[in-house]
Design goal:
Order of helices and strands: EEHEHEHEHHEHEHEHEHEHEHEHEHHE
Strand content: 15-25%
Number of strands: 14
Structural class: alpha/beta
Radius of gyration: 21 Å
CATH architecture of the largest domain: 3-Layer(aba) Sandwich
Shape: globular
């Protein structure tokens, strides 16, 4: 993309979405991904100011974090006298965040003040637009592109060196994930379908039921190195990614569908709007998840047709995003 002025992407999250969008934007990306309190809250802002002062960007793309956004505002108004365009990629948790107790009103005013210096908000789906427009007048929808595995997925499947046929639950055990349902569904799949089940993600041992720990057909490898994760994903008979958040577009879906794996997602309006016929959608009951896994394995979607429909929808959003940048004088169409 031809962007007017020097542009960078700066973030405190090593995130696949950021890497994907940066590849399309053609901007350099600067990442500081350390979530320890001292490093994040003291070293992080100093690092960010150092990057901004050295690079002197005219356009700053960022994955929204409260303190990072505050640091960008310092650069914009103290060092550049407002002559910087800020585009903030906001995930739903940041847009919806409030705090409990009497200080929530003060927090919301602080949050609104941070967005006062943002020129454009990017959100992942249409349900977030009203929330975004409370913070900034200009908002545009841009979902993630499907993960491009550069043919590595098919190469691994064709090699025959890795066992296939398991069902993979992609999990991070974040607040939006139905943990008990994941374990119950994994047990039911192993029992009723006779499939091995892998549950990714680092899970506290106290959350794992004894019957899951004792089951030889259910594996909890914890955090997997990238090579192991890719092999586990690419050779899965089906992939399940669940969320209780109605406007969350789960990252695992982009990875799974990008690898042409049969994918089962939560039956939410946001996921169905984004992924359309590419995936199978399940209610949050073990019996329905087992049935949808059976369906996805037995009657898989045509990956080429599904990919084409998704990419057409993504292309429309990308064009709208470019028009928003062009209208703000940030890019040349």
């Amino acid at each position: 993309m031809d962007i007017c002025g020097k542009a960078i992407w700066i973030t405190w999250h090593e995130h696949r979405r950021t890497r994907s969008l940066v590849s399309w934007l053609g901007t350099p990306v600067f990442v500081y991904d350390d979530h320890r309190p001292v490093q994040r809250n003291i070293v992080g802002p100093l690092w960010a100011i150092g990057v901004l002062m050295k690079q002197k960007p005219d356009v700053v793309f960022t994955h929204f974090s409260f303190l990072l956004q505050f640091t960008i505002m310092i650069y914009k108004y103290l060092f550049r006298f407002g002559r910087v365009t800020v585009i903030s990629d906001c995930h739903n948790k940041a847009l919806k965040r409030e705090i409990s107790g009497p200080f929530n009103g003060l927090f919301l005013r602080f949050k609104k003040a941070l967005f006062w210096g943002v020129d454009l908000i990017i959100v992942t789906n249409t349900s977030l637009v009203p929330l975004a427009k409370k913070m900034c007048q200009n908002a545009v929808v841009l979902r993630d592109p499907l993960t491009d595995w550069q043919g590595e997925d098919q190469e691994i499947r064709n090699s025959g060196l890795v066992n296939e046929g398991h069902v993979l639950f992609i999990c991070s055990f974040d607040k939006d994930e139905p943990v008990d349902l994941i374990f119950e569904s994994a047990f039911a799949i192993a029992k009723d379908l006779g499939r091995k089940v892998v549950i990714s993600g680092k899970v506290p041992t106290r959350l794992v039921p004894n019957k899951i720990m004792a089951h030889n057909g259910i594996s909890l490898p914890g955090y997997m190195p990238l090579k192991q994760y890719k092999e586990t994903l690419f050779t899965a008979a089906a992939v399940v990614v669940l969320t209780e958040d109605t406007d969350c577009l789960v990252c695992g879906a982009f990875e799974s569908l990008g690898a042409s794996r049969p994918t089962i997602l939560s039956d939410t309006a946001g996921l169905k709007e984004c992924f359309m016929d590419s995936a199978v959608y399940s209610m949050h009951t073990p019996s329905d998840i087992v049935e949808k896994v059976r369906l996805a394995i037995g009657s898989p979607k045509n990956p080429e047709e599904s990919r084409k429909a998704f990419e057409n929808a993504w292309g429309c959003e990308w064009d709208s995003f470019k028009s928003s940048l062009n209208g703000a004088g940030i890019s040349k169409m």
